[in-house]
Structures are given as C-alpha cells and as structure tokens.
Please model this.
Amino acid sequence: MDIRPGDVLIMKKNHPCGGNEMYVIRSGMDFRLRCVKCSREFMVPRNKIEKSIKKVNREEEG
Model:
C-alpha cells in the first residue's frame, strides 16, 4: 500500500476522541500518525494500520 507523509488516512474505527482522520507524519515499518481532531501523535506498526484504513486522501502535486 502506497502511503506517504502528508497523506490523511480515513480509518474504519474512531480514535478515542471521536475523530477518524489521521495525518501521516512518518511512514516505514512503523507509522507516526497525528489525529486531526485532537492532535495526539502516536506510533503504529505497518501491519496493524494497513488493515484498518478505509480511504487515503492525498494532496495532489502539480
């Protein structure tokens, strides 16, 4: 799955604050994500996060 820093992930399940949009800060074996609603940052392993992504919003370059 092609996920880059700067993408916004729409998740299947909500974060405890109620938001389901996560901003990608870093990608690799682990993802560093920031909740768009509450701004909390956390690390998640790639295999766990790829299962719970509903949609990827990407800012188009151009």
